[in-house]
Design the sequence.
């Protein structure tokens, strides 16, 4: 790479923190006396605060959606593909906000935060958040920033579900809603995969019932295995065949000298697992997967169409043809529920081998469509 | 190609109504309806590039294959459902017509008339499937798999218990009157406004 600031990058960004001193009550009744949210913003909020876009992150995402934190940083934010000057979510026009969800491990109050009045981290005692809780906490953030209505709420996967929840819970707050590779709720298969991931973490002896920080251990093996399982569900069979085939890794030798043949795909998964285990918190992973399992867009309503009937947003739903985690049919369920009550919807199924990860990866059709659709968001130039 | 049928469709769509354009292509006609008739429009389009062009125009479009049955739309969801010059491309035109008059209070359909004298002459004298400026493709690689005539269409409507509210014909300048009198022979295209029986 010739330079560290590729064109169309938001460049260097500094995460910000907001503290809330008033108690926050979760859907399950548990309360935090005070809490903080870590967030980043890109672009400039206009005088009428009519150009604010909220980005909701997925399971393992964070507030760091775009740009880099230090010169020479090789890894930009998780959605640098879509956020930046001249990009689909154009920071020349829009003020973009992304926060780390409550219960996360990237700076917002979560399992690693000390419980009030002590040094002991919450660990596995941290309240189980639900998507609705995150929506409510993001509303506090919006109010803190002087925003009273989002020009758009945008997210993929779990983030897409959160965007839809926003549109239901605060209809007059959401002008446009973008849900990519989302679902109205998890299937038994989805929950089963999450359970395997959780089981990997919970059965790691270093997990110590979630109190590993206090006991100076780290359930890295469990987290790595959980990530390997999760990561597998983000890719498609064809995509994996194209990328790895049955290729062996070049230096496939074990340390003790006996030859060990390692397929590229094994090496890739191990690498993904190992890297993830150093940056992601085990308790957060358990909380986030449970939040996914518990998510039900129609909760409290007789059906999905009724749940969405109060929404006022203009919707964009995109699915990815090879996504088997939240298959296109799941987006179509949301689409049909929206259309049953006469909502404004655009829907497309992007033809790709990228699987569930499709919303994070480059694809000309996907990027053009998102880009063209986003032009209706915010004040017209 | 100058699509005279679209002018008729445009005039038949009431102002301020709720329109679904099936096979909306790049959305140009739907946009015209929005601009000139102030309709609330939605499109259905299968091709991604077309869909992006329509989205670019600020339209709401669903990527869907009309042949899959349009099950996503509830009954009477639209005031008018439009299908212009696409009936002949559908796998099951009769099923699409039935669905159109269910999801819309009315439907407007236009199609090229295969009963036109040119087609008859071409087939009658040359013994080959007609090809022309309007129908430039060979029989084996044309998307037009279900050509019909004006009389065929009316017979199908009768069979499906679909009422014909109105019919208009498009014909060459010299044959405009003939097209009105003998549409099956002189209309190049026909436009129908239909609804389900007893509506």
Sequence:
């Amino acid at each position: 790479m010739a330079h560290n600031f590729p064109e169309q990058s938001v460049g260097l960004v500094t995460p910000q923190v907001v503290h809330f001193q008033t108690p926050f009550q979760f859907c399950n009744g548990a309360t935090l006396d005070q809490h903080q949210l870590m967030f980043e913003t890109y672009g400039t909020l206009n005088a009428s605060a009519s150009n604010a876009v909220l980005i909701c992150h997925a399971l393992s995402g964070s507030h760091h959606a775009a740009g880099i934190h230090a010169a020479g940083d090789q890894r930009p934010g998780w959605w640098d593909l879509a956020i930046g000057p001249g990009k689909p979510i154009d920071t020349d026009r829009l003020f973009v906000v992304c926060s780390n969800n409550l219960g996360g491990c990237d700076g917002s109050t979560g399992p690693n935060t000390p419980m009030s009045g002590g040094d002991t981290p919450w660990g596995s005692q941290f309240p189980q958040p639900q998507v609705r809780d995150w929506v409510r906490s993001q509303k506090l953030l919006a109010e803190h920033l002087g925003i009273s209505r989002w020009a758009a709420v945008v997210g993929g996967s779990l983030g897409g579900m959160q965007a839809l929840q926003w549109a239901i819970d605060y209809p007059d707050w959401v002008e446009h809603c973008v849900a990519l590779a989302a679902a109205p709720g998890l299937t038994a298969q989805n929950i089963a995969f999450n359970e395997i991931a959780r089981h990997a973490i919970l059965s790691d002896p270093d997990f110590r019932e979630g109190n590993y920080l206090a006991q100076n251990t780290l359930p890295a093996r469990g987290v790595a295995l959980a990530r390997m399982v999760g990561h597998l569900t983000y890719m498609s069979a064809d995509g994996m065949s194209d990328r790895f085939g049955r290729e062996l890794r070049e230096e496939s030798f074990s340390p003790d000298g006996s030859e060990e043949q390692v397929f590229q795909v094994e090496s890739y998964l191990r690498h993904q697992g190992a890297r993830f285990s150093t940056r992601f918190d085990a308790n957060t992973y358990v909380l986030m997967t449970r939040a996914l399992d518990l998510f039900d867009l129609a909760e409290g309503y007789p059906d999905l169409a009724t749940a969405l009937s109060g929404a006022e947003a203009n919707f964009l739903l995109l699915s990815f043809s090879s996504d088997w985690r939240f298959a296109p049919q799941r987006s179509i369920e949301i689409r049909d529920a929206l259309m049953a009550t006469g909502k404004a919807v655009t829907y497309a199924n992007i033809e790709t081998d990228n699987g569930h990860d499709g919303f994070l990866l480059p694809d000309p059709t996907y990027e053009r469509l998102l880009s063209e659709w986003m032009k209706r968001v915010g004040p017209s130039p | 190609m100058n699509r005279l049928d679209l002018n008729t469709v445009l005039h038949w769509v009431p102002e301020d109504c709720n329109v679904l354009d099936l096979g909306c292509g790049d959305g140009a006609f739907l946009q015209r309806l929005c601009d000139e008739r102030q309709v609330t429009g939605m499109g259905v389009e299968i091709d991604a590039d077309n869909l992006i062009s329509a989205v670019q125009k600020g339209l709401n479009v669903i990527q869907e294959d009309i042949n899959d049955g349009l099950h996503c739309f509830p009954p009477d969801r639209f005031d008018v459902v439009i299908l212009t010059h696409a009936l002949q491309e559908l796998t099951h035109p009769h099923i699409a017509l039935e669905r159109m008059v269910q999801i819309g209070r009315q439907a407007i359909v236009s199609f090229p008339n295969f009963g036109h004298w040119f087609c008859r002459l071409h087939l009658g004298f040359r013994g080959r499937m007609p090809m022309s400026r309007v129908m430039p493709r060979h029989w084996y690689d044309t998307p037009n798999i279900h050509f019909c005539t004006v009389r065929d269409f009316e017979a199908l409507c009768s069979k499906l218990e679909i009422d014909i509210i109105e019919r208009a014909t498009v014909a060459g300048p010299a044959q405009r009157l003939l097209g009105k009198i003998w549409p099956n022979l002189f209309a190049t295209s026909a436009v129908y406004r239909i609804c389900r029986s007893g509506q």
Observations:
- The first helix of chain B runs from residue 4 to 12.
- The two ends of chain B are 35 Å apart (CA to CA).
- Chain B touches chain A through 19 residues (CB under 8 Å).
- Residues 70 and 193 of chain B are 19 Å apart (CA to CA).
